[in-house]
Design goal:
The chain is an all-alpha fold and about 230 residues long. It has two domains: about 1-100, Orthogonal Bundle (Rna Polymerase Sigma Factor, Chain: A); about 145-225, Arc Repressor Mutant, subunit A, CATH 1.10.10. The protein has helices at about 20-30, 35-55, 55-70, 85-95, 100-115, 130-145, 150-160, 165-170, 175-195, 215-225. Helix 2 runs antiparallel to helix 3, helix 5 (about 100-115) runs antiparallel to helix 6 and helix 6 (about 130-145) runs antiparallel to helix 9 (about 175-195). It is globular and about 55 Å long.
Length: about 230
Amino acid sequence: MRVDSAVSVPAERAGGASADDATVIARSIDEPEWFAALFRRHAAPIQRYVTRRIGLTAAEDVVAETFLIAFRQRGEYQLDRHDALPWLYGIATNMIGRHRRTELRQLRLLARTGADPVIEPFTERVDAAVSADAAKARLGAALARLPAGHRDALLLVAWGGLTYEQVAVATGAPLGTVQSRVSRARRKLRQALGDLDPAALGTGPGQQPRKPRRSEQARSTEETCHE
């Protein structure tokens, strides 16, 4: 299924180019064609995130289903949240949960061979003296060993670019739980990667690592001090 089939309303009929997500969703209750604006606005980052998690083959169906579910559940959306992207990431992450075996199979293949183009961007900052394939293999093995909830939280931050607060919205977990899961996951990755650069995990193709908010930096410092 093609991703753009998730919303069948022609793009030229959709409104809301300058409206925030909450306004688009609210208008789409009575005028469904407005929802196409939300799809055009957010389909690309959701597609990238899902592809990194489970690969291209399964990603298109998952992304299409994500937007179909969002469309069906739009009446339940909390309109005080002007940015719907965390909500969409949460739906996509729940859908990925149905493909855990696919995700783990990819990560374990990566752990054995070190060859996976999906994860290539996240190891390009590893020191040149270290084998890139070995780095990717260790990263794949470490990610595969993480509990599903820890892996979800970490990758929503590292690959989805969400803040801790947005991950809490996406997953429905309390903020403190999200902070704990990400901290523990990062600690396990640092232990697994050893001398490699774990900061490379946050770098995607053609983008710079997301600069944390001041509050996140303070939390990160506090977590490091207590580890």
